[in-house]
Amino acid sequence: MNLDFPKSLDWAALVDLGIVYGIRIVGALAIFVFGKWIAKALTKVVRKAMEHAKVEATLVSFVGSFVYILLMVVVILAALNNLGVNTTSFVAVLGAAGLAVGLALQGTLSNVGAAVLLILFRPFKVGDFVEAGGTAGVVEEINMFSTIFKTGDNKIVIVPNSSVIGGNIVNYSAKQTRRVDWTFGIGYEDDLKMAKRTLEEIMKADERIHADPAPFVAVSELADSSVNFVCRAWVDTPDYWAVYFDTLEKVKLVFDEKGISIPYPQMDVHLDKEAA
């Protein structure tokens, strides 16, 4: 076997080639190092701007990470391009990979998008009592994929963000005050004016019930077995359930003291006996 080697090497050409590629490598490293520093600086600026605007911490972290990754992709492509690598194929591959990942994680990405909407528009915040996504409870946490609720019986319910944003959201804690509604019935034989006056006195005696707007009491219905009163009063939101249950108990006790009946559904049946 005969191997033909060049009898002499063009050392000058090799040196020139080494210098050219050496400069390219050094330039690529410089682009990467400087670009990484720029990416960190820009990400820090974006984070500070969002924090200054009092954006939710979850969204600040998400956007900051996304901006940094996007800038680093640009920096790496620029460094490869400086080395003489054709980056067009890399961009095509990244685009195809991104499309495939997006299709595979369509449901997950919809939750991420819903999280961004929840954080931007803020229909509720952590600590609010909310009814959404088929459940009701105190919001414990809002992350990028789900909203965590704690129910009244101390259960944790994890609801996907897409389910939360896709339906009606009822925020019971959004306002400082809420209106409490009751319906009380008395018998047709009872003193209607005394019953109405009694209900007004009960609500005026409770310091948790606001005087403005004043409590409202009125006859709402002449039902089959009772005369029904509708009662409405405004309270601070944290006092809602305490006032609701305390008033029910108070009305029953005071009605018993004054001899005002609270009738239950009944039916009178009259039989006609035919004479023999």
CATH class label of the largest domain: Mainly Alpha
What gross morphology would you assign? rod-shaped
Number of strands: 8
How much of the residues is beta strand, in percent?
15-25%
Plain-language structure description:
With 276 residues, this protein is an alpha+beta fold. It folds into three domains: 11-104, Orthogonal Bundle (Helix Hairpins); 123-171, SH3 type barrels (Roll); 177-258, 2-Layer Sandwich (Alpha-Beta Plaits). Helices cover 50% and strands 18% of the residues. It is built from seven helices and eight strands. It has helices spanning 11-52, 57-82, 88-104, 106-121, 161-165, 192-205, 240-258, and strands at residues 129-132, 135-142, 146-150, 156-160, 170-171, 177-186, 216-222, 227-236. The strands form two sheets. A five-stranded antiparallel β-sheet has the order 4-3-2-1-5. Strand 3 (146-150) and strand 4 (156-160) form a beta hairpin. Helix 6 crosses helix 7. The longest helix has 42 residues, at 11-52. It is rod-shaped and about 135 Å long. It starts with 10 loop residues before the first helix and ends in an 18-residue tail after the last helix. The mean pLDDT is 83.
